[in-house]
Give the backbone structure.
Amino acid sequence: MAGIGFELRKLLARNTLGGVLQAYAYAGMIGSGPWVLSIIGILLVGVLASGIVVPPSLVTQFQTTVTYLIAFSLILTGGLQLAFTRYVSDRLFEQRDELVLPNLHGVLGLTLAGAAALSTLALATLFEGVSFAYRVLVVMAFTELAGVWVLAVLLSGLKRYKAIVLLFAVAYSLVVGLAYALAPFGLEGLLAAFALGQLVLLGGMWWTVARAYPSPRSVSYHCLRRRTFYPSLLVTGTLYNLAVWADKFLFWAWPETSEPVIGPLRGSLIYDLPVFLAYLSIVPGMAVFLVRIETDFAEYYDKFFTAVREGASLEYIQDMRDEMVYAVRQGLGEIAKIQFIAVLATFVAGPSLLALLGISGLYLPLLQIQVVGASLQVMLLAILNVLFYLDRRRIVVALTAIFLLANTLFTVLTLKLGAPFYGYGFAIALLTTVALGLILLDRKLDRLEYETFMFQ
Amino acid sequence: MRADITLLLEGTYPFVSGGVSSWVHQIIRAFPEWRFHLVFLGSRREDYGPMRYELPSNVAGLETHYLFEPEAPPPLEVLEPSPQVMAEVEALHTSFLAGVPPAQAMARMASMYPTLLQGDHLTREHFLRSRAAWETICSRYKRFCTDPSFVDYFWTVRIMHAPLWKLAAIARNLPASRVYHTISTGYAGFLGALAKAHHRRPLILSEHGIYTKERKIDLLQAQWIKDNRNVFQRDPTEVSYYRSLWIRFFEWLGRACYEAAQPIIALYEANRQRQIQDGANPARTRLIPNGVNLARFAPLRAQRSTRVPPVLCLIGRVVPIKDVKTFIRAMRRVVNVLPEAEGWIAGPEDEDPGYAQECRNLVASLGLTEKVRFLGFQKVDELLPKIGLTVLSSISEALPLVILEGYAAGVPTLATDVGSCRQLVEGLTPEDRALGPSGAIVGIADPTALADAALALLTDEARWQAASRAAIARVETYYADQMMFDAYRKVYSEAMERG
């Protein structure tokens, strides 16, 4: 999310309460906008279609299908997203803007072809007893989603945050509207609405890039060359997305917590809804994370390396290092504070919220622990982001691998321990990873000038 | 293979031609009974062309090392050096500070040699990567550096120390030799000190110029050394911190060599005094001037015409240190009085093409294109019979062979008062002085004096003949190569026996 700092700083520089509020609102919107919009969109489709689509289990089938599509498309493209964003920002730093579009086409072509081939293979072999239309629409939607992620992360790398949020808003409004219109066609109708919405999103994002970075060449695979491609980023992105979904997969696969929904897809009635809701609770945390890391931290990070390069005194270099450390500490502390409030709010307002939404109060304990887990996930994101800034790719790989391992291990453990422990696996896995991440980050920051100079 | 004498050569023989290299070649050929091993130290491989000399058959081996060639970086994480070693390093650096008696610093330095030579207690990896080295660099920067830029301090320290490990490795791996002989102080001289400490064989030092002084001049002019002080921080009388750091570094390298070497040989008295001033023990210093091959030059005397040719010849590279421009300006005045006079400049112009062009422009603007000729590189044997005077307008010289070669051929000289020139023209000892002047000495950058002195010699036949006779007598009495060889034979033999 580099580069957002400028706009945030402008808002903060007014030094008024309004300015601060605006900055956080803005950060919240661009930090969480896309997935908040997706979640709300999918929930709304369910609400709107519930009276029209018969039987109602078809709505569940739709929502489960979309959840799987999102999960697998994120895991498939997670690595490529990071590696490609790094490629693009390196080229932009070199002012070779004309390389952006042709390489996007190269990567996008590979992604779409790979996603289409994989999903076709899966739909052809694993999905017995579903309609042909369902298969075609799922392949379409999966392929589009894969492209959407690549483009979304590229656009945020290009600092076109507003465009992303706007396009997501348009696309999901379209999905909701079309779903309402196509609801009479049942599951296939809803899926068609989703697929069409994604197509618009994909097209809109591509157009935004193409207009901003015109290029005489149409396709290039320059980004996949060994010099410009970082395999560690590919590994990190894949591991992180696998880790985030590991507990969900386990809950879907565990017989006691899940039931079949469509084809081989299973859902977990007790787990999925709290998870969805919990992710909405991290909007303030994400906003704080963006504001803190992208303003203070990024500013002192720049000053630190400028001071190193341009011959400042050691005292000044160390001051900037201290300021950086302070900004990180401050940022993580504020995320912790604001998420603590979110957790408290869930504890206090949770029961009435669930009642308002017509959801059973039995979900409450799970919702509470999921909010804790999701909050810790924001902390982890912040830590990983700082480590990315410092280009400590090996540590990031290690942390995401530990996250995956811990989430798998602890979730299996809680599944064996029984219902009262559900959700703790995810939270404890994150707690472990965050604690380890803090220790490693602390060590890195402590050794920053030493490594910056002596590791040359 | 075992060698009798190992020569330590920094940036000269056999890859760079010039006075020092010819001298080395001369020495090796003078002692066919001894086997020589050559160690050439250069900056980077690409800075040198092919060999300029055919190695005599008694050269047993030649090894080349490039001190500033990039090396493979060590692994990022390394074992830390022991605290005792770091304490020694700290104590050594502290003893280099002003106010500590040099003898004490030298003792500390010598006590570090085994640590450095052993190659595992204090390695290049430790220096480049260890936390302890980092902390030492930081704390010394905070205590002593008066320049604000830490990154420049950091790299200055790194670049300064990096060759020391290469030198230690070279010293360790040198083939056994009865004597080590370095032709300068500096890195080669320090290598000599390390070689002596490791192999326990004597070290001889012959200095042609004064390395430390020349380095100082280079460093004071060097553009690459940064000075980051701003207008308010800068005191114009104070040399930039990094310059003075480099100067001190070479001063200490020089001291290390003087401390280890015996004898310490200078070409002429002024340089011997300079060595003493820079820390050499007077009792170990000696004078052995350069010598020329009389048998080669004496026959040239017969080739001369009876009349003195009104030709002034500057033999040397066309570079600023030779101050060719003063010679050209003097020629204007000479030609005004003596229209048939000519000025020749015999030497390569490729070292500083910009300066060479300026000299040509000056010739043109003084209207001397018919009178001053650029001959390029010439064989002295062919040149000397045709000229009336060798001229050296240099602003710095050591003991110029050109003067001695001219003497041997019967040509007097006209030189500036630099290096040993006055000694060569007027004589050093009373007996030497009794031979009479073999030319004339003028101040530097004084074209009028140069012209007047030239005219006085060229227009007064008797005076020129007296100078020519004095020149021949002087070179035959004091500067015959055979005398130099005898002196070195004695130096080598004594050192070999001393063991």
About this structure: Chain B has a mean pLDDT of 91. The interface with chain A takes residues 76, 128-131, 133-134, 138, 141-142, 148-152, 154, 226, 228 of chain B (CB under 8 Å).
